[in-house]
Amino acid sequence: MLRPLSGPVRDVALLVARVLLGVVLVAHGAQKLFGYGFDSTSGAFAKMGVPLPQVSAAYASVVELVGGGLLILGAATTIVSALVVLDMLGASLTTGSFTSIFVASHGFELEGMILVGALLLLVIGAGRFSIDHLLLSRRGVAVTT
Questions:
Q1: What gap in Å lies between CA 86 and CA 118, rounded to an integer?
Q2: Which end of the chain has fewer CB atoms at under 10 Å, N or C?
Q3: Are 72 and 105 in contact (CB under 8 A)?
Q4: 99: which DSSP letter?
């Protein structure tokens, strides 16, 4: 029977996954705020029928940009991961992406993978190579990741 990774290999895998997920989120958050601009992003959300488009655009932009940066650092990973899961659920449910799988057909492929990555970090944690681990270990809290 194969066992899950443990020790330093597990922590390196968590670091790589966390950083890659964070980079994707930062890119999408920056695109919403600085590429399209907040007004265009909220306008696009309104056209897609997203409820409270300005609030939703602000939430998505901040969670993706700031939250992605925090994931890269491994800071507040549990909180950020939960917020990202909600962000991706909202994106999938309000844009009709469940009608297809592939991104090219406006499917749930991207939202689904981001959601799964965030969900796994929510459950597993940031790993040893993170600010979360550093802060918890300095407080004397036993860290299982």
A1: 10
A2: N
A3: no
A4: G
